[in-house]
């Protein structure tokens, strides 16, 4: 598939995520966690 280690390394560098993509991914995870916990909280409050 790759002729040399150099070609493999160039391919790997292109496949890495940028800092902006990583930040957006972590931000999305945090937002989803908050939404889930708030949903559970209000769900429990409705049961009382």
At a glance:
With 48 residues, this protein is an all-alpha fold. It contains 2 helices and no strands.
Detailed description of the structure:
The protein contains 2 helices and no strands. The longest helix is centred in the last third of the chain and has 29 residues, at 19-47. Helix content is 83%, strand content 0%. The model has no long low-confidence stretch (mean pLDDT 88). The chain has a domain at 21-48. It is mostly helical.
- What can be said about the biggest beta sheet? none
Structural class: mainly alpha
Overall helicity: over 70%
In DSSP terms (H or I, runs of 4 or more residues), the helix count works out at 2
The overall strand count is 0
The ordered H/E elements are: HH
**Average of pLDDT:** 88
Low-confidence stretches: none
* Radius of gyration, whole Å: 21 Å
Indicate the proportion of strand residues. Answer: under 5%
The separation of the N and C termini measures 61 Å
What is the overall shape?
rod-shaped
Main features:
48 residues, mainly alpha, rod-shaped
SSE arrangement:
Blueprint: H1 5-15, H2 19-47
């Amino acid at each position: 598939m790759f002729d040399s280690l150099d070609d493999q390394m160039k391919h790997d560098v292109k496949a890495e995520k940028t800092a902006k993509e990583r930040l957006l991914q972590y931000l999305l995870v945090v937002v989803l966690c908050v939404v889930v916990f708030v949903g559970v909280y209000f769900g429990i409050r409705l049961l009382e």
